[in-house]
Design brief:
four-stranded antiparallel β-sheet, alpha/beta, six-stranded mixed β-sheet, 10 strands, 24% strand
């Protein structure tokens, strides 16, 4: 179980139960219940990438990447430790491409989605996508902005990319805050299996 944790947005955490996992963040707001029947494991090949200059230099603890890994694990999508890279178009594109080269079917980034000069995660991500899924990122912003108005400034994108050895992968940008990534995983988790099924030729 993910333990409650405080950050600039307020206390965050999840409470799990028999029916699923209830996600809370940003002062305890309820973001939805995710059924835990997703048992994707190694077949999914999920990879989490933290994009941060300071984390890559060891100057700051990577809390958001760890939160993504924990939250995905709670809904049956285990993955290894986050891969930490500095901000920048080339570093982001390279890290995502490396994950896709390893056969990942879900790649989640955290960080670098704002408006500062070094926030270039969307630009780096766009270079590897062949299909954009605007509804995912729009939904994430809509949920977060209800309690954190500055969430409207998040420029994260989501879409489909080619992945070695399979029929493609879902790539999603999450913001760099713990509350933001918990909101994002709550929205993302119910969609992952459907997206992968569609890429593999499943029925709508």
């Amino acid at each position: 179980m993910i333990r409650p944790e405080a950050d600039a947005g307020g206390p965050v955490g999840t409470v799990s139960g028999a029916a699923g996992i209830r996600f809370f963040s940003g002062g305890g707001r309820y973001c939805g219940t995710v059924k835990t029947q997703l048992k994707l494991g190694a077949e999914l090949g999920a990879v989490v990438i933290t994009v941060s200059d300071r984390c890559s230099r060891g100057e700051r603890e990577d809390r958001s990447g760890a939160a993504v890994v924990d939250a995905l694990g709670e809904v049956g999508i285990p993955c290894g430790p986050p891969r930490v890279v500095p901000d920048g178009i080339e570093s982001v594109a390279g890290a995502i491409s490396a994950a896709l080269g390893d056969g990942a079917r879900l790649v989640v980034t955290t960080g670098g989605t704002g408006v500062s000069a070094r926030d270039l995660t969307p630009e780096g991500t766009a270079t590897v996508l062949h299909t954009i899924l605007p509804g995912i990122s729009e939904r994430m912003r809509a949920i977060s902005v209800a309690t954190i108005p500055t969430a409207a400034l998040s420029r994260g994108i989501a879409g489909i990319a080619d992945s070695v050895g399979n029929n493609g992968a879902l790539v999603v940008n999450l913001p760099g805050s713990v509350g933001g990534v918990l909101d994002g995983v709550a929205i993302l988790a119910p969609l992952v299996r459907h997206v992968i099924d569609q890429l593999d030729g499943g029925d709508h």
